[in-house]
Every structure is written in C-alpha cells, then in structure tokens.
Design brief:
This protein starts with 5 loop residues before the first strand and ends with a helix. The longest helix is centred in the last third of the chain and has 26 residues, at 363-388. The relative contact order is 0.16. Helix content is 37%, strand content 16%. A hairpin with a 2-residue loop joins strand 3 (83-86) and strand 4 (89-99). The radius of gyration is 22 Å and the shape is globular. By secondary structure, it is an alpha/beta fold. The protein has helices spanning 18-28, 39-58, 72-79, 104-107, 130-138, 164-173, 193-196, 246-262, 266-283, 310-319, 339-343, 363-388; strands at 6-7, 66-69, 83-86, 89-99, 117-120, 146-152, 177-181, 200-204, 215-219, 224-226, 288-289, 300-304, 322-323, 353-356. It has twelve helices and 14 strands.
Length: 389
C-alpha cells in the first residue's frame, strides 16, 4: 500500500481548514450583494462584517480598521505608495526603506519609483541592521515627503523574527510610517498591531488555512490612508473598489478565528521542529541551519547541505511522498539564487530546503522526513570522492 503523502510546506500555503470550507459553502448558498439594502444584501453584509471582526480579533484591532483585499500582494501594492491622504489633505511619502530579505511583493517597491526605494542590509542571521535604518532615515530628505519603512514580522524562508517594535520606535522618531508584512507571523505569533507600533499591517488568508485570493490591511485608523489602488463603487469605505468576495472573506474569517485558538499549539510545533533539527545535525555534521541563533517562527527550519543543490533535495523528498520547499513558493518556476541567503552572506547558489510545520504535523511525519533525509544525505556523501577526483 502506497504511503500517504506528508505536507511540510505550510509557509507556502496551509490546507483549507474544515471550518473555513464550511463557512465558504454557507456563503455560497446566499444570494445578494453586500452593498444592497434589501434583506438579502443585509444578510451577506452581516456575514462579511462578522468575518471582519474575526480578522480584527486576530490582530488586536477594531473591525473598522480592517480592509479586505484580494491577497497580500495587492495589500502591499496598496500601501506602498508615495500618495497618502491625511483626512482630505494630501500627504507625500518621499521614500521607501525595505530590508534586503523582504518578500518580492515588498522588494518591488509597490507604487514607488525605483530610485526612491532604499534596500537596507541585514546581519548574518537575517535581522534588519537597525544602525543602517537610523542612518538611512537621518539622511532622508524630508522636503520630498515623509519616510516609510516596510518590514516583515517574520521571514517566509528562514522564519527569522524581525525587531519590528524597535524599528517602529526609530521610524516614528524620524516622523515616518511603518508598514508590517504580518503574513507569516499571523497565527504563529501573538499579533497586536498596536504593540508592534505598525501604522499598517497586512495579512493573507491562505497562510492561515483560509482560501486563496483574499487578504486584509489593518490600519491604525481612518484619518491616514493611501490613495486607493482599486477605485470603484466605494466598497470598503472607499478604500478598495469592487464587490467583496463574500465566500472567500467568510472562509478567511473562520480561518482567523481558528488561528487565534491555534496559538496554543506553538509549543508543540516548536518541539517537533527542534527535535527534527537535532536529528538532522546528528545525521549531517556539516548542515547549515539558517537563522538558528535568533528568534524564529516555531514552525520553520531552513537548511543547506554543502554539495547538494536544493532542487535535487526537493525532488528527492517529493519522490518519497514529502512536500517541502526550496525557498519562497512565489519564486517557484524561476531558476535563480535566494535573495534571502545572499542578503545573509550565505552561498546563494547552493540554496536551501524549507520545512514549515503546523499543528496538524505529527511525530510520524517527522520520522518519515528524517528517514528520507538520511537517504538523500547518504547519496550526497557517496558522491564526494568521485567529485573530488
């Protein structure tokens, strides 16, 4: 009998939760547009607003601060713009600062011109260099507008947790704004927009076990907002045009509710990850586990094996029925080095394997992975003499 496949790629996407599926199916049976004033419209509007409250609860925010989007990439492009409004008055953002390990949707700079985007270095563990941030902000020309920093809460490849609250303090000292990519941290860390000091943060449903194609922006308030990326019929209080994707939003709300409860499983997941890494180090003395000396997401391990290409290892695991990643899933299909490894000073050509666990991961899953790893590692070691010759 063929062994059941094991899924260890939750940072790419988490399987749809049963609660999210049920919420979506219930929404699909409803008729009406959330903007309609009749009973059918009011019913589906109530469902959307209930989901909004669930997403807000996950972030320690108020429902009025949540704006639904089609996902995190749209949210990033919505927020990363030089054109803001403070009430009815225009407010210019003169430059964007990003860390070198940000997700591509942030590294691209959104609606900023390339010459107005400054990439800040990270240390060898992948943490933002706060002294470089201070220097960049000190040299920013305020006559062009306020500075903005976009910083991830946790890296999608390494799981490294960034010093967001300290970065927020520095940015606000210089009168700037902070946008936080909370996509990987949501549901894996206790999340509070206010505690982080973020002026805005954004989320993605499918990282939480919700459906693909919906995300959210969480704002500090309604006074300061970017010029809308999606203009239209005034939906989401005029911040995001287009009829709301009610079934997806319902699933997102259910997933957010489950994610809040799931924080209780963090210690369990960390135990699995730490046991896994201990056993990998015992099998391969030269393994490099990236970011292991600093705080990481409990579910993430990102490692390299000298002499073994990550694509080769990924194929080997896949053939053994185990789904892992060789980096960010958003870069799949592209041949190229990891910009995260390069920024950390590691060998970007070698690449790395990312394992990302969830509360549904079992000890038996870990056993299967370790067994597959042992086989792949033996093959790697057996090739060394021939390569040396």
């Amino acid at each position: 009998m063929k062994a059941q496949r094991i899924y260890l790629d939750h940072n790419a996407t988490s399987p749809l939760l049963a609660d999210a599926r049920a919420a979506m199916l219930a929404a699909l049976t409803m008729t009406g547009n959330p903007s309609s004033v009749h009973a059918e419209g009011r019913a589906i509007r109530a469902m959307v607003n209930a989901a909004r409250a669930e997403v807000a609860d996950l972030c320690g925010a108020e429902p009025s601060q949540v704006i639904f989007t089609s996902g995190a990439t749209e949210a990033a492009n919505h927020l990363l713009t030089p054109c803001y409004l403070m009430g009815r008055s225009a407010l210019d953002i003169g430059g964007l600062f990003v860390s070198a390990v940000e997700h591509p949707c942030v590294l691209s700079g959104g609606r900023f011109l390339a010459e107005n985007v400054t990439v800040l270095p990270v240390d060898r563990s992948g943490c933002l260099d706060l002294s470089a941030l201070k220097a960049g902000l000190a040299g920013h020309d305020r006559d062009r507008g306020l500075p903005m920093l976009a910083l991830q809460l946790a890296n999608n490849e390494t799981g490294v947790i960034q010093p967001v609250a300290e970065a927020a303090r520095i940015v606000h000292e210089y009168g700037g704004l902070l946008v936080v990519d909370a996509v990987q941290g949501a549901g894996r860390l206790a999340l509070s927009r206010a505690a982080l000091g973020a002026d805005f943060l954004f989320l993605s449903s499918h990282k939480l076990g919700g459906p693909v194609g919906v995300g959210a922006i969480v704002a500090a308030g309604q006074a300061l907002m970017p010029i809308a990326l999606m203009a239209g019929g005034g939906q989401e209080k005029g911040h995001r045009g287009g009829t709301e994707n009610a079934p997806a939003i319902a699933g997102f709300g259910a997933a957010a509710r489950a994610a809040g409860r799931g924080l209780e499983a963090v210690a369990y997941v960390r135990g699995l990850r730490d046991d896994l890494e201990r056993r990998l180090r015992a099998l391969a003395y030269d393994i490099v586990i990236h970011g292991q000396t600093v705080d990481r997401l409990a579910n993430t391990s990102f490692f390299s094996l000298p002499g073994l290409k990550s694509e080769t290892a990924q194929i080997g695991f896949d053939m053994d029925g185990i789904a892992v990643s060789s980096g960010s899933a958003c870069a799949s299909g592209k041949v190229g080095p990891s910009h995260v490894l390069k920024a950390m000073g590691a060998d970007p050509e070698l690449g790395a394997i990312r394992i990302s666990l969830a509360a549904s991961t079992t000890q038996a899953d870990i056993e299967r992975f370790v067994s597959a790893f042992a086989t792949i590692n033996r093959r790697r070691l057996s090739r060394r003499p021939a390569e040396a010759a």
